[in-house]
């Protein structure tokens, strides 16, 4: 199975800050990497697909980059409504696997 | 408008069985890759199962031999039959569509989730 290692596991930042989350795959996943946002009590929401493509309707302050085994998710200017847990997910091989999540809080 | 609505969760004793349903609207379940993903209380997301449009099915090792994914094309509904339930199966179960777009695949639509609690 492909292991997805996300860091940090939690993060506290101020409104307006630039926030970066990393995700490392245990093997090359050919950019088959998605990022999701999950707010408490809600289903996950797709933000970024194929490592760097912004899902329709998602604010442009969200972005993704990376290739091979190392990927980055960035919020350029943190907003109060961005408080959530963020997950990376690979689909290069079954089983589909998720990172352990990054809980983002407002400082 | 695309919508996925899960039902069938509840409290069940260890060793028992439960069938989850996921009624879809706005698209055809049988033409799409459909999945179940679960989330134990306070934990992360765990992929459970996947069914291809052609009918092939795949399972996480943790549920293989106990869970069965299926669909009813006439009802446009996805199912997850869960047998021999264990305490560690306690989770919110989400159904989700795995969209295949060229060379990328992503879970673009999710249900609201249904809670399964396995406890005596």
UniProtKB/TrEMBL annotation, chain A:
InterPro entries documented for this protein: Ig-like_dom, Ig-like_dom_sf, Ig-like_fold, Ig_sub, Ig_V-set, IgV_Light_Chain
GO biological process: adaptive immune response
Keywords in alphabetical order: Adaptive immunity, Cell membrane, Immunity, Immunoglobulin, Immunoglobulin domain, Membrane, Secreted
Gene Ontology CC entries for this record: extracellular region; immunoglobulin complex; plasma membrane
Annotated compartments: Cell membrane; Secreted
Domain Ig-like: 2-89
Signal peptide: none
Coarse class of the protein's main subcellular location: membrane
Recorded superkingdom: Eukaryota
Protein's name in the database: IG c414_light_IGKV1D-33_IGKJ5
